[in-house]
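Risk mitigation, structural track. In case the binding assays with flavin-adenine dinucleotide fail to produce interpretable data, a predicted complex structure has been prepared as a fallback.
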Amino acid sequence: MTLSQLPSDFYGMESQLTAEEQDALARLRAVMEPMRAIVDEHWHRDEFPMDVIAPIAATGVLGHSWEETQTFPGSAVYRGWAALEMARVDASLSTFVGVQNGLAAGSIGACGSPEQRAEWLPRLASAEVLGAFGLTEPLSGSDAARGLRTTARREGDEWVLDGAKRWIGNATFADIVIIWAKDVADGQVKGFIVPTTSPGLTRTKIERKIALRMVQNADIVLEGVRVPESLRLQRAESFRDTARVLRLTRAEVAWAAVGVMAGAYEAAVRYTGEREQFGQPIAGHQLVQDLLAKSLGAITACIALCVQVSRMQDEDRQDDAHSALAKAYTTARMREVVAWCREVCGGNGIVTDHDVARFFADAEALYSYEGTFQMNQLIVGRAITGRAAFA
Ligand code: FAD
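Fallback model:
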């Protein structure tokens, strides 16, 4: 399958991928494109389209990060382009994949024992098992390390979990959720693979969102939930290990932010060719072209930044500050670009019929999840100055 150049990839940077990666991306694009037809309706209904899960899993993206489950050894740069491709169609779809592959499988891939990886990664990759990631709590978001209140108490071969989690994506339908909890014995954060059918675990959908309405976020309460030692992530010793998972997923959120910009930009370009004012398509007006050119400039710069941060991952030299800078910078540019794209659609830019308004609203969630703009700036600030302004 041939990969045609995206209108938003002005410098044709996708062509740097290997032929095998370009083929995989073309197949993913072919699967994702028809989903445009159903996302608006589901967004308004506040429902996740469960029928998309099987075709998405068939593309391999739910397991493409791990040796055990990847169909070919693609690079981090390829995986980034895949995140862009999905977000370009819809940010809720890319978020679903980000939670399943990046956060849930990512926790097991980065912090699980070989046996845990062998048991869970293939089942997550095929979507036989759906996963979620429970770090944020009602009283701790940015302060997730220090402020974590959920506790884990060891009793023989079992652990007893008590606490509450908030905002947990995919959690209303997930089969397992990775729960991060503080061991009462040593005060360190540990990770647990918790089946959502466990007695004492309840989940309640968060309603009335204005962004990523298709993503099913839940509040989770854990009351004396018993988990065997075999479900404790064997290589998660402290919050540093949780941060290892987030480092990788933040870089992919940066790519998804570029996808949101690309989706909004491509829809805006279409609109400006169709809408006429003063006797010609608005695409011919100078100030409209200025907004489109500024958008394309931001997208192009952000693609280049994302390619480099993923290359650093491929070369094993990406650290927390590198992915934090990419996440903060691209999501800030995304907010500007979706606003410019909304602007060129005039009044029609505030109804979702032309797609731009949905990208505009969804951008707000990407800006704040996986570390807010401020927290990612502070991680970069720590790297610049050697002083942590938030610990
Ligand atoms: P707060 O931490 O209360 O922050 C509020 C404001 O204060 C922000 O602007 C923040 O930047 C600012 N602030 C806080 N501390 C400082 C400081 N020291 N200096 C400067 N500014 C500061 N979590 C999960 O665990 N799993 C998920 O699957 C998940 N999915 C999500 C999906 C969506 C749609 C959303 C919205 C959130 C999701 N989250 C998830 C939670 C997300 O990661 C948190 O919302 C985020 O980390 C911010 O935490 P908070 O909302 O508690 O905001």
